[in-house]
Every structure is written in structure tokens, then in C-alpha cells.
Amino acid sequence: MFVTSAFAQESAPAVEGGHAGTEGETHSGTGVPAEAHGMFPPFDPATFPSQLLWLAITFGLFYLFLKKVVMPRVGGIIDVRNDRITQDLDHAARLKGEADAAVAAYEQELAEAKTKANAIGQQANDAAKAEAEAARKKVEAALDQKLGEAEARISSIKANAMKEVGTIAEDTASAIVEALVGGKASKAEIAAAVKSVAR
Amino acid sequence: MAADKVDPIHQFNIVKLIPINIGGYDLSFTNSALFMVATVAVASAFLYLTTSSRSLVPTRLQSVAEMAYEFVGNMLRDAAGTQGMKFFPFVFSLFMFVLVANLLGLFPYFFTVTSHIIVTFGLAALVIGTVVVYGFMKHGLGFLKLFVPHGVPIYLLPLVVLIEVISFVSRPVSLSVRLFANMLAGHITLKVFSGFVVSLSALGTLGIAGSVLPLAMAVALTALELLVAFLQAYVFAVLTCMYLNDALHPGH
């Protein structure tokens, strides 16, 4: 076959026939193609024991190494990182909670201060109003009093004036009578006449 | 000798580096074993060194290691629930082993461990063996309920059970052949197109001009193979998770 002849050329004194079972012994030199069967190499059963043995050895060691050394390490790295991330997230959440609480407290204080300010303002306003009212009342009372006094004075003056009107009229009448008639009228007559006219 | 250079099968040859023969079995340290060791060494060193600083804020490489870890962890948790997490080291080692083996195989002149069916079958048998052993240990004979789905009419039951048994038995085969065939086919195709480049360039100026086409193809295929390397490791791990779920919850 094709493969076989190629091999035969490479490994010069290759035995063409009779190398079915005693392959290992015939080619003991290194670097010499061992399986010069007329066979597709992956299907050559003569290589099976060696490949299986070395597969078992290498894969077994690989499995042990990964299981004992590599995987705990990589798993540890990932766990530590995840823990760290959870921790950081918790920390962030806690800080956020604190910030929220601070904002809420601030807002509450602000609201309280506002109501207090309003109350103080209201109080001041009321006090000012009351004061103004009292002042106004005082002024009004004073004015009323003055008005009363003035009215009383006016009425007394008026009364006096009225009282004097009769006397003046009597004097005037007696003077007129004296000038017109030339005689003197009695005081009583004149008073009666004035009274009847004033009526 | 040109034919030897472009032989696409040559890359799958097993070469003995240190011959060992015990009890009539050939257990030599071969190039395949060397690359298994390399796979394990590269994967272990990567996971170990990138995480050695244990940074809280990961470096790029550390986050790659962490991503792989969490990726497989989520995959397993989704498929098999929290109970399945006891298999996390197993699934993670499988995923990393297959992934790194696939990726290493993409380097020119490197041997691809997963292109040998006995290797993929060994891994698949390990998975199914774990499922069977754990299933019987955990549920005893109740594990056999896996083959008897709920709500099936009694007259259909024998047929359904037969189908379930066949599907269960074919699992290690499909699991191993899928990975093996993907890697094998991809590497053969790559080699064939790269071989065209070599053969054409040998034909002179016109040949060199003509070899641009297969070269572009080889580049594109390399990108595709990179995708396949990831994808097959993922598929292998996902199917492992689903089979482990059967071991944990056989009643569906």
C-alpha cells in the first residue's frame, strides 16, 4: 500500500512481512517508525496499550492536579471576589440608607423650622395687631373724651348765651321803648312782652 | 520522495521514543505519549501560572483561566444541577485536556493526540464508566429506570426500552468517534491543501503562482480548525454533562 511503501523508504531495512505481533522487538531504535503495518495508524491495535497507558497516566495526573491545586485556587479567587463585591454592595446600600436618613431628618427639621417660623411670625403679627388696636382705642378714647368736653363746653356756652339773650332783649326793648315812647316801661311788663315775642 | 512529503496520513504515525515492553505488551513512550504529556504540562502550567497572583482584579490571562473555569462550571450546573458539581473537576479536566490537545495539534509538525480513536474512546469510556458506576452506586437498580421513560403505553414499552438501551450503548461510540473524526478529517484536509502548495511550487513559476489558491485555502482551513478545536472540546464537555445528569437523575 501507499503508506507502507513510504515507510519502507524512510526506514530502510524495514521488514515487509511478518511483523504482526513482534513489532516492538524488531524496531528498538529510537525515532524509527514502529508501526509499519499496512494499516491506517489510528486504527492500529498495536499502539492501543501504550496510548491507553499513557493517557491514563497523563490524564490521571492532570485530574489530580486540577482537583487538588488549580480548582480550589480559581474557585477561591472567584469566591473572594464575589464576597468582596457583595460586601461593597452592602456597604454602598448602607451608606445610601444613611444618606436617605440624613435627607429625611434634614427635611423634617426644615419643616419644623418652617412651622416654627410661621408661628413666630403669626404671634408677632397678632401682638402687633393687638398693640395697634390698643393704641387706636386709647387714641379714640382720648378723642372721645376731648369731643365730649368740647361739646359740654359748647352747650354751656350756648346755655349762657341763651340766658343772656333775654336780658339783652329786655335791655334793648326798654331802650327802644324809651326812645320811641319817651316813657319808662316797667321792668316786669317788658320781660312779659319779650317772653311772649320769644315764644 | 515528494509523495512521502505530501502523504496526509503520515502525521498520524506513532513513533516510539522510548521503547518499553512489559509482560508482552508494548507500552513504549511514543510521540503520542509525548504530546499527552505536553498537553497536560501546557494546560497545567497555564492554569497554575496565570492564577498564581490571585489578583482581585484579574489580568488578561487570569481572566481567561477564570472564564474557562466558570464556563465549564455553568455548563455542568445547567445540565446536571447543583448535585452535578461533584463532577466539576472531572468535566473541567476533560474539557481542558481535549481543548489543549486539539489546539496543540494545530501547530505544524505537532502530533494530535485526539486524532487517535483509542484516545478519544478511552476518554469516552471513562465518561460512560463514571456514569454507570456512579448511577448504580447512587440509585442501585433504580438506575435502570433510565431505560424506562415515564408515560409510555405498556405495549410500546419493550420497543422503547430496546431503543433506549441501544442509544445508551452507542453513546461512548458516538462521543469518541465525533471528536476523533473531526480532528482526523480536519488535519487530513489541511495536509492535502498544504501538500498542493508544495507540489505546485515544484513546477516552476506558473506553479508557484497557482499555489496561491491552495495556500489561501490552507489559511482558511486553519481558522476553521481553530473553531473546530474549541467546538469539539465544548461538545465533548456538554455531552459529558448530560450523561452525568442521567447518572444523577435516572428517572428523568
Helix content of chain A: over 70%
What is the count of β-strands of chain A?
A: 0
Give the termini distance of chain A in whole angstroms: 177 Å
Poorly predicted parts of chain A: 1-36
How large is the share of residues in beta strands of chain A? under 5%
Total number of beta strands of chain B:
4
Determine the mean pLDDT of chain B: 90
Number of helices, counting only DSSP H or I runs of 4 residues or more of chain A = 4
Strand order of the largest sheet of chain B: 1-4
User: What's the number of structural domains of chain B?
Assistant: 1
Characterize the structure shown:
The complex is a heterodimer of chains A (199) and B (252). In chain A, 80% of the residues lie in helices and 0% in strands. Chain A has 199 residues and is mainly alpha-helical. The longest helix of chain A has 134 residues, at 48-181. Chain A starts with a helix and ends with a helix. Chain B has one domain (2-46, 86-248). Chain B is built from eight helices and four strands; from the N terminus they run αββββααααααα. In chain B, strand 2 and strand 3 form a beta hairpin.
